[in-house]
Amino acid sequence: SLKTNDSVDNKSTDEDNELDPRIQVELEQLNNCTDLINKLEIELDEANTTFRILLKDSMRRLKVMTCKLGSCIDRARPYYEAVEIARKAQLECQKAAVQFQRANGIHQAAKETVALAEARFLSKQNEWQFDNAWQEMLNHATTKVTEAERQKSESGREHQK
C-alpha cells in the first residue's frame, strides 16, 4: 500500500513539474519583455550620459563665448530690446489702423442709412405719416451714427499714440 501511495505521489509531482503550455508561452513573453526593458534601460542610460556630456561641453563653450563677447552682448542688448519694443508698437499701430478703418466704414454706412431714410421720408412726405415706427427707425440709425463716430474717434486717438 505504501508503494502504491509513493508511485501516486511521484506521478502527482511529475504532473506539477510539467507546466501548462499556456503558462510556458506567457513566461516566454515575460522573459522577452524583461530583456527588452533591460535593453531600453541601457539605451536610456547611454543617452543620459551623452546628454550630460553635451550639456557640459555646451556650457563650457557658452562660458568661453560669454567671457570673449560679454561686453559686446551688453552693448547690443539695448538695441535688440528696442527692436522688440518697436515691433510690438508697430503691431499695435496696425491693429489700431484696422479698427479705425472698420469704425470709419460703419460710420459711413450709418450716415448713408440716415440720409437715405430722411430723403425717402421727404420724397413721400405727402403720402406717409411720421409715426412712432418711423421715429424709432430714425433714432436707431442716428444712434448707430453716434456710436460709430465714437468708435472712429477712439480708434483715431489710439492710432495717433
Task: Write the topology of this structure.
Blueprint (H helix, E strand, L loop, with lengths): L1 H16 L3 H103 L8 H29 L1
Helix pairs in contact: 2-3
Would you write up a description of this structure?
With 161 residues, this protein is an all-alpha fold. The chain has one domain (2-160). It is built from three helices and no strands. The chain has helices at residues 2-17, 21-123, 132-160. The radius of gyration is 43 Å and the shape is elongated. This is Sh3 domain-binding protein 5-like protein. Residues 1-21 are annotated as: Disordered. Residues 23-57 form a coiled coil.
Concise overview:
With 161 residues, the chain is mainly α. The chain has helices at 2-17, 21-123, 132-160. It has one domain (2-160).
End-to-end Cα distance: 111 Å
| Rg from alpha-carbon coordinates | 43 Å
Q: In this structure, how is the largest beta sheet organized?
A: none
What number of structural domains do the residues give?
1
Average of pLDDT: 83
Task: Please provide the ordered H/E string of secondary-structure elements.
Answer: HHH
Spans with pLDDT under 50 lasting ≥5 residues?
none
Judged by helices, strands and strand pairing, the structural class is mainly alpha
**How many strands appear in the DSSP assignment?**
0
Strand content: under 5%
Number of continuous helical runs: 3
Q: What's the shape?
A: elongated
What percent of residues adopt helix (DSSP H or I)?
A: over 70%
Region (Disordered): 1-21
GO molecular function, one term: protein kinase inhibitor activity
Organism: Triatoma infestans
Coiled coil: 23-57
